[in-house]
Amino acid sequence: MGGPAGPPTGLSAAGTAARVEQERGVGRQAAVRRMTPLLPILLLTLVGCSALIGRDVDGGNGGGGNGVSGAGPGAGDKPIVGGGGGGAVPPVGDGALREEPDPTVVDAQPVPADHFAIGPDGRTVVVYWWGGTPNCFGLRRVDITIADGMPMVTPFEGVRAAAQGKACTAEAVLKSAVVTLEEPVLADAANQDPDPGEPALLGQALAVTPMGGVLDPRPHAITGWAVSSNGRTLQTYYVGGTEDCYALASAAMDWPEGGPLTVDVREGRRPDVDGACDDMGLAKMVELSLDAPLITDGTD
């Protein structure tokens, strides 16, 4: 896919969890409001909420930036892969109801996507949406269309065969389904041959920003990405060192024309630390902002 034109819009990791939860709350309330007058109708059309995303990042947390250009790690670099302590949780455990396409569902209508999660392979996509109560409403299919190299993902939800003609409660339920893209939209600079499959979005991940002066920065393998419905906010998850000893040195992206967006996360030792450090792994997340969408909700 083609890369976005212009410079990145920046990085803003502070308060990520609160903003996401707030936006999800707005989406849930909007879904309920829309469903209430539609109970006699066969299908609910629900409103999702937007989240967050970015491109090239190098920045400072005092002392200036220490970013990289987005090129992959050097030949001598060995990527740091996941360790214990982070509590990796796959998206299927995030509270969403996992749906499989059901060809018996009738009167299916497009439903706005709430957000996406993408595996380390850059192709395995978990799409989330706010749907109707599961004993009445189900997933018929998920459509993927490509526009100018960008995937647009649209769930279609309708009435289950056994629920036709029955009254249903106005309940907004967060649902998810897995689709696989023909070509990856993301790549990890530290892992050139990732296994296919769903992402591991690390529970209670610490939101981090680059710090200046970090010593011996090394590439860290990415466990997964979360993407907002508008495709412009990218949350990158990885397992790093303990907060009192290690810090993010840089988080950079390279988006070549016709290729996937490559993310390069590097972490090293804090410049103000002396002595031994505990190497226990810690779940971390860095948020980036794109000036062009990576993947989007197809109902816009």
Give an overview of the whole structure.
With 300 residues, the protein is mainly β. The chain has one helix at residues 16-35; strands spanning 88-89, 97-98, 106-110, 113-118, 124-131, 137-147, 150-159, 173-180, 186-188, 201-202, 206-207, 215-219, 222-228, 233-240, 246-254, 261-269, 282-289, 296-297. The strands form four sheets. An eight-stranded mixed β-sheet has the order 2-8-5-4-13-14-17-11, covered by helices on one side. The relative contact order is 0.26.
Q: Any key phrases for this structure?
A:
single chain, 300 residues, mainly beta, 4-stranded mixed beta sheet, 18 strands, 7% helix, disordered N terminus
Q: Can you count the beta strands?
A: 18
Q: Report helical residue fraction.
A: under 10%
Query: What fraction of residues sit in β-strands?
Result: 35-45%
End-to-end C-alpha gap:
20 Å
Strand order of the largest sheet: 2-8-5-4-13-14-17-11
Mean pLDDT: 76
Content-based structural category? mainly beta
Number of helical elements: 1
Order of helices and strands: HEEEEEEEEEEEEEEEEEE
Q: How much is the radius of gyration in Å?
A: 20 Å
Largest sheet: 8 strands, mixed
The dominant shape is elongated
Low-pLDDT windows of residues: 1-78, 81-90
